[in-house]
């Protein structure tokens, strides 16, 4: 990891924590990584931290203890009652902002990083190949404009299936934000870049958990869904080849413009 440019604010973004292997990877690998990288702020997508679907107070606590300042989410954050309760009571646990009025929890917040630096975090969910929601483009831009009254440092977690939707959104708000980081597909992409207006972008930061199966699931359970699509879902998590996946964004603190983005994957040594 290149060292942090002088004066820059460094944000570490960790991709989708999947079940116990993902939580364990964060607990074992993240504290040392944050120290070595001289990180100022850490965002973790935790929507699949509880048994591969949803989040709970126990997994959220583990991720905060590992170094998260904020936990973002997606289509599964509110899957469990305890996830809904958590999102209601903890302002550091976000669910997508473009969900209908009356949905538990909140989709954005502004948080203290280091002295004098506040970071806005906005969570959105895409509409391609996902259940219908409010428009992430118009909702997102309106909220970004509100957040900019408080800070130019704004990181967006755009949780979506389609590459084009994520990149189109990033170009739509380039110049207004620090980064648009994609989550949800569980596969890390190699397209990290700083766009013309100063927004760091990456289609997907990838999954933190076992890479031995199919995007977190045991291979035979993932296969069952395709071979016997209407014969019930099995959802056991894969084991082995556990990795912490993410990206590091360096930004100019005064302007909120990104200076660089670097992706990383760290492997958890086998026990
Ligand atoms: Fe998801």
Give a structural overview.
The structure is a single chain. The strands form 2 sheets. Strands 1, 2, 3, 10, 11 and 12 form a 6-stranded mixed β-sheet that branches. Strands 4-5-6-7-9-8 form a 6-stranded mixed β-sheet, covered by helices on one side. It is built from 6 helices and 12 strands. The protein is of the alpha/beta class. Helix 1 links the parallel strand 1 and strand 2 (41-45). The model has no long low-confidence stretch (mean pLDDT 97). The radius of gyration is 17 Å and the shape is globular. Helix 1 packs parallel to helix 2 (57-66). It binds fe (ii) ion (FE2). Fe (ii) ion binds next to loops.
CATH superfamily: Metallo-dependent phosphatases
User: What's the quaternary structure here?
Assistant: single chain
Low-confidence stretches: none
CATH topology group = Purple Acid Phosphatase, chain A, domain 2
Helical fraction equals 25-40%
Q: What's the shape?
A: globular
- Count of DSSP strands: 12
Mean pLDDT: 97
Number of domains: 1
The major pleated sheet works out as:
6 strands, mixed
Architecture blueprint of SSEs:
Blueprint: E1 9-14, H1 19-37, E2 41-45, H2 57-66, E3 70-72, H3 81-89, E4 108-112, E5 118-125, H4 136-147, E6 154-159, H5 163-173, E7 179-183, E8 193-194, E9 200-202, E10 209-210, H6 219-227, E11 242-251, E12 258-267
Parallel strand pairs: 1-2, 2-3, 5-6, 6-7, 7-9
Antiparallel strand pairs: 1-11, 4-5, 8-9, 10-11, 11-12
The protein binds fe (ii) ion.
The site of fe (ii) ion has 6 residues, from loops.
């Amino acid at each position: 990891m290149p060292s942090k440019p002088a004066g820059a604010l460094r944000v570490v973004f960790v991709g989708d924590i999947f079940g116990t292997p993902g939580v364990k990877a964060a607990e074992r690998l993240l504290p040392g990584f944050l120290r070595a990288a001289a990180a100022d702020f850490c965002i973790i997508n935790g929507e699949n931290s509880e048994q591969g679907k949803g989040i709970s107070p126990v997994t959220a606590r583990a991720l905060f203890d590992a170094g998260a300042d904020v936990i973002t989410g997606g289509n599964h954050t509110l899957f469990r009652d305890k996830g809904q309760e958590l999102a209601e009571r903890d302002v550091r646990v976000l669910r997508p902002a473009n969900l209908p009025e009356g949905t538990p929890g909140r989709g954005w917040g502004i948080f203290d990083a280091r002295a004098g630096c506040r970071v806005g975090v906005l969570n959105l969910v895409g509409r391609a190949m996902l259940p219908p929601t409010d428009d992430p483009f118009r909702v997102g831009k309106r909220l970004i404009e509100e957040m900019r009254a408080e800070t130019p440092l704004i990181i967006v977690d755009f949780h979506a299936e389609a590459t084009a939707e994520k990149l189109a959104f990033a170009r739509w708000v380039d110049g207004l934000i620090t980064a648009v980081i994609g989550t949800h597909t569980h596969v890390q992409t190699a397209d990290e870049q700083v766009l013309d207006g100063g927004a760091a972008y990456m289609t997907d930061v990838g999954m933190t958990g076992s890479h031995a199966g199919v995007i977190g699931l045991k291979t035979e359970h993932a296969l069952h869904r395709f071979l016997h699509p209407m014969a019930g879902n099995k959802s056991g998590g894969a084991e082995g080849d556990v990795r912490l996946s993410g990206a590091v964004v360096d930004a100019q603190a005064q302007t909120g413009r990104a200076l660089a983005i670097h992706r990383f994957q760290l492997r958890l040594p086998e026990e």
